[in-house]
Specification:
The structure is a homodimer. Chain A is α+β, with helices and mostly antiparallel strands and about 450 residues long. Chain A folds into 3 domains: about 80 residues, 2-Layer Sandwich (Uridine Diphospho-n-acetylenolpyruvylglucosamine Reductase, domain 2); about 120 residues, 2-Layer Sandwich (Uridine Diphospho-n-acetylenolpyruvylglucosamine Reductase, domain 3); about 190 residues, 3-Layer(aba) Sandwich (Vanillyl-alcohol Oxidase, Chain A, domain 3). Helices cover about 35% and strands about 20% of the residues of chain A. Chains A, B: It comes from Nostocoides vanveenii. Chains A, B: Keywords: FAD, Flavoprotein, Oxidoreductase.
């Protein structure tokens, strides 16, 4: 192995080998323990440089970790000791094509930048992870990211029309294009979406855009218990297509109120923020039906607004949860999802696990999808507290599996959950997974130890 | 190889070996020449019988052709001489779960039966191939079928939440479930959708359902030229989310008028049938915008109705095209798709190809998606006419590829287009395809010679 060779093939200006600078590339937001120091960080500006870097790594059998904006919550971009990290941060071009309602995007472009570029043409890129201001499209593709609006508008994979991918041997393939429907050959594009950097490195994406939706109305409903709020979600899911259905439990409400003092009801057991973007008068009708469901399951207070700014203010309580909880200690961020009707049982179960393991576990959720984020908060300096939190983390995943759910709804498996993947998928699906991995990356150099 | 062994393991009552009865399983609607006589047709009632049949075939190295309702338009279900055809026609159970808004469906259930079962619970299964009354969900999964409403509501893969699949070695795996979001592991489920029976045989599907949409309004617009109609489609695609955008060219209009005498304008060069299902007053607004676009590009006549029955009557002209053209001679049904802005050029190019090869090629299209069905009509008894039609068929596929499109938008590759797949995908994507095929079906027994 020769770093000189790497610098020569990629261009020395885009290779970082200074350990002090490389330290910034060791972790993502999950801060999964055990990240190593890479041998180099390549920051390509072109797909050809990605190919050159991968070819160099392949020729030396060096593991490759692709990295977007580093906001991942499962450790999928954690550096490997002696491995090559390829950071796509410099590949940020965005080109909107209004005629085809598509965006051609490089992987380092931020989700918010794509949204802004689309909006400038009266168009809309729906997927909206909570981190949309700071996460990259490449990371969104790698994890098949979700978000708040996906209860009505779907997740990242639903908007991917085309991908350029650098394979493990350095070849570049182009999948899909600006055509909307295409069933020629295997759905390889869909296979690469959500593959967490284990099958290839995406260097260009064609995203489908929609016309901008009508302005949304917002409803906030306060419930005496978390279970009652969840039951409202289940009930409205049968017949209503809300464009956003977010949940906070009582503990999450209090953490946000401690942080923001915005006047939330500290006695509430659960809170829902719900939006409808049905056009015109249909919006008010949908809001009335949503309100009726909330009242029927016993909500103690409900408030509605058609003012988008006021609506965003309510949503800001939900968005404040992550910074509000981050300052309380170390975090393990869960991402379990269940069939919507089992949401009440999942919340009850998490509450029981929190009590039994004496761990603070506030819960927020993209409730309309059954996708929850129990955040385990603990004193990172206390090994016993960490052990309890880790045990609770594992139990919550098993609970979700037992309820017919998943260990991860949108964050990905990464390194944080790789040990639990087999429990969800079972040995036969794991074997199929390994067979496909071996077919596309026989050396196993792409993000080993993560994702699958 | 022993058919006695097959009968013993599957159950003789569900095995057909009489050649006279097996003849009904030799072709699908594409009637691609060269179908053989299978050694047996298994008609399983359970997934366990599918497993047993596949294990028997695997142990003898016998090719397996899965078959749904036999309405495929690419020869994907054509029987192989001496192969085993597995017809899923008896596995037709449908169970609607309103709480999760899902349907658990066996592959032989007809698309229309799923729609009806969902409607009985106030729910809706959107994908609607033109053949929805007679095509099976298993076939829809195999081809990732589209239809008329997918311009707004997406294609089959967008509604698949779970699959049970029998692999090439007879193992049964379960992918996904009733959870809406799930990113754990590779997107294997999406890989199996559209794989045309080459990677496994689906024995159970979990489909996502939506609440029933509002009633649609319908607009019919008549244009002097096909190109003008296509330009209207391009223009409205930038800003309007119609729920249906169907096209017929002048030749297709005349063929339907010959058949139905419904009073269509025989002098028209193109006709659009467009629907909006926006709720309440928004629908009329959307219709007005659509009408304005049609008038702006020079449509000669436009008619609107809010009466769903009258709307369906207009759509019946479009639906009558297949039976109307079928009686005129032998058919080669194209399914090419292009980026929507290139639709006018595609239509012009098809017209030029038709003239040059002296072949009758009326065109209908799911125009809002850029997915067209040029139907090549020729005298099957005239070898020269067949040769000209086949040459035109190939040229139309190449034209679509040259315009950034696909050789198949919704019918699949099957045996009809397998020779053209490489021209679209290129050698590297073909190699990745073969690597995945080899990983999942090392013996190559699943639908060889078709799909990929």
């Amino acid at each position: 192995m020769s770093l000189d060779e790497l610098c020569a093939t990629v261009g020395a200006a885009d290779v970082v080998i200074d350990p002090a600078r490389m330290a910034a590339y060791q972790f993502d937001w999950a801060r999964v323990p055990g990240a190593g120091m890479p041998c180099a960080v390549v920051r390509p500006r072109t797909a050809a440089q990605v190919q050159a870097a991968v070819r160099w790594a392949a020729s030396h059998g060096i593991p490759v970790v692709p990295r977007g904006a580093g906001t991942g919550l499962a450790g999928g971009a954690s550096a490997i000791e002696g491995g090559l990290t390829i950071s796509l941060e410099k590949m940020t071009a965005i080109k909107i094509d209004p005629a085809t309602r598509t965006a051609v995007v490089e992987p380092g472009a931020l989700n918010a930048a794509v949204k802004r570029a689309a909006a400038a043409e009266g168009l809309w890129y729906p997927p909206d992870p909570s981190s949309f201001e700071i996460c990259s499209i490449g990371g969104n593709i790698a994890t098949n990211a979700g978000g708040l609006c996906c209860v009505k508008y779907g997740v990242t994979t639903d908007y991917v029309l085309g991908l350029d991918v650098v394979l493990a041997d350095g070849r570049l393939i182009t999948l899909g294009g600006k055509r909307i429907k295409d069933v020629a050959g295997l759905s390889l594009m869909k296979l690469f979406v959500g593959s967490e950097g284990t099958l290839g490195i995406v260097t260009r994406v064609i995203l489908r855009l929609l016309p901008e939706p009508p302005p949304a109305s917002t409803l906030v409903a306060v419930f005496p218990t978390a279970r009652a709020a969840a039951e409202a979600v289940v009930e409205m899911g049968r017949t209503i297509r809300a464009s956003l259905v977010e949940f906070m439990d009582g503990r999450a409400i209090n953490i946000v109120e401690d942080y923001t003092a915005m006047g939330l009801d500290r006695s509430a057991g659960g809170l829902l923020v719900i939006q409808s973007d049905a056009p015109g008068a249909a919006c008010a009708q949908e809001m009335q039906r949503i309100e009726a469901v909330c009242l029927a399951v016993g909500c103690s207070e409900v408030y509605r607004t058609d003012d988008p700014q006021e609506g965003e203010a309510f949503l800001s309580a939900r968005r404040a949860f992550f910074p509000a909880s981050e300052r309380l200690g170390s975090l393990l961020i869960e991402d379990v999802g269940v069939p919507v009707p089992t949401l009440p049982d999942l919340l009850d179960g998490i509450s029981e696990i929190a009590a039994r393991h004496d761990t603070d576990i506030p819960v927020v959720a993209h409730a309309g999808d059954g996708n929850t984020h129990p955040n385990l908060i603990f004193d990172g300096a206390d090994p016993a507290a960490r052990e309890r939190a880790e045990a609770a983390f594992e139990e919550i995943m098993q609970l979700a599996i037992d309820l017919g759910g998943t260990i991860t709804g949108e964050h990905g498996v990464g390194r944080a959950k790789i040990g639990a993947l087999g429990a969800q998928l079972g040995p036969d699906v794991m074997e199929v997974t390994r067979a496909i991995k071996a077919a596309l990356d026989p050396q196993g150099i792409l993000n080993p130890g993560s994702g699958i």
